[in-house]
Amino acid sequence: MTSGDTGSRDIVTGPKWDGHYAEPGYIFGTAPNTFLAIEAHRFAPRGRILVPGDGEGRNGIWLAGQGFDVTTVEASSVGVAKARSLAAERGAHLDIQNANLDFWGWPVAIFDGVASIFVHFEPLVRSIMHRRMLSALKPGGILLLEAFTPKHVENRKAGSRGGPPSEMLYTADMLRDDLAGADVELLREEEVTLDEGSRHQGRAPVVRLIARRAA
Q1: Could you tell me which of 144, 180, 123 has the C-alpha nearest to residue 63?
Q2: What is the DSSP letter of 73?
Q3: What is the spatial distance between Cα 37 and Cα 29, in angstroms, rounded to a whole number?
Q4: Measured distance CA(21)–CA(26) in Å, rounded
Q5: How far apart are CA 74 and CA 99, in angstroms?
Q6: Quick one: angle between helices 58-65 and 77-90, nearest 10?
Q7: For residue 104, which of 78, 136, 127 has the smallest C-alpha distance?
Q8: Residue 209, SS3?
Q9: Which CATH number is associated with domain 2-212?
Q10: Among 12-26, 78-92, 196-210, which is the least confidently predicted range?
Q11: What would the pLDDT profile of 148-183 be if each residue is shown by its tens digit?
């Protein structure tokens, strides 16, 4: 399976990505994901937010700077070290955990929001992991998700960067099925232009979801 902010990173073997994160700078940049930045107002003010697969920490650190109580989870120890360095540089306070999402002790009903940004899973576990995200929310909590769609295969051929293997790409219908029972407030596929460090660049067909755990 893959973890977020990479598009193609195996979180079961997180050290595989340590080499990528050892490159100079922040390979996905230090600015927050655009969709997250636009829609974070939907989270409860100063609420508890979970950011699974947060890579080098850009999204969790930004959320902490907005006053949220943030927990991030990342499999790569190098990514976590860079996230902690960036948090210290910005004076951001958040809980940055080095753990594999497969084996992390997912809590139930304690978060006001979950921000899943380019977190891609293998088909056999995809729905399970998405249900875990939903279950981690308090009733009424918000899941905000952005991921690549299968159309991105053609964009990569044309030079765009980012995205996991084709079998790990998502459609709106997949997410609707995975999160059956949630109150879906937004679910659409669209094409955007990514400019997130060196690894997410160019035109990208994405699916964007905002779903609320039923009260």
Answers
A1: 144
A2: E
A3: 14
A4: 7
A5: 6
A6: 30
A7: 136
A8: strand
A9: 3.40.50.150
A10: 12-26
A11: 999 867 756 666 556 676 788 999 999 999 999 999
- For residue 45, give the nearest of 71, 68, 65 by alpha carbon: 68
Q: For residue 99, count CB atoms less than 10 angstroms from its CB and return exposed for 0-12, middle for 13-18, buried for 19 or more.
A: middle
CA dihedral for 69, 75, 79, 80, sign (positive or negative): positive
Which region holds residue 164: left if phi is over 0, alpha if psi is between -120 and 50, else beta?
beta
Distance CA 35, CA 118 (A): 11
Integer Cα distance of 21 and 185 in angstroms: 35
Sign of the CA dihedral with 158 first, then 192, 119, and 37 last: positive
User: What does pTM read for this prediction?
Assistant: 0.91
pLDDT in tens, 6-60: 433 344 446 677 888 888 899 999 999 999 999 999 999 999 999 999 999 999 9
Beta-bridge partners for 51: 72
Residues forming a β-bridge with 148 = 206
